[in-house]
Design brief:
It holds the Pfam family DUF4229. The chain is an all-alpha fold and about 100 residues long. The chain has 3 helices and no strands. The longest helix has 30 residues.
């Protein structure tokens, strides 16, 4: 495949932890301000979605690039499998004789 290591699991884990931490920080600040915990969590989720996209843009881009690369590899493998199932193997010269 490629010589570069696959950092998708690490990047995805970091991104998810960062997003959950952002929601927790927003909810914590609101709770300290006297907002009920459940309401603070809901507001933290709603505010954390767009704010996380802005704050963690580079990490989001790395995760998106990793997912695109993995989807490309899967599509290539799927096309190769379909070609094998049809009998269209590349380099197969048995039928040419």
């Amino acid at each position: 495949m490629s010589d570069t290591p696959d950092h998708l699991p690490r990047d995805l884990t970091l991104y998810l932890i960062a997003r959950f931490a952002l929601v927790a920080v927003v909810a914590g600040v609101l709770s300290l301000a006297g907002v009920p915990v459940l309401v603070a969590l809901l507001i933290g989720l709603v505010v954390g979605l767009p704010l996380g996209l802005l704050l963690f843009r580079r990490l989001n881009q790395r995760v998106t690039a990793g997912l695109a690369k993995r989807n490309e590899n899967r599509a290539r493998a799927r096309a190769q499998l379909r070609a094998q199932l049809r009998g269209d193997l590349a380099g197969n010269d048995e039928g040419a004789a």
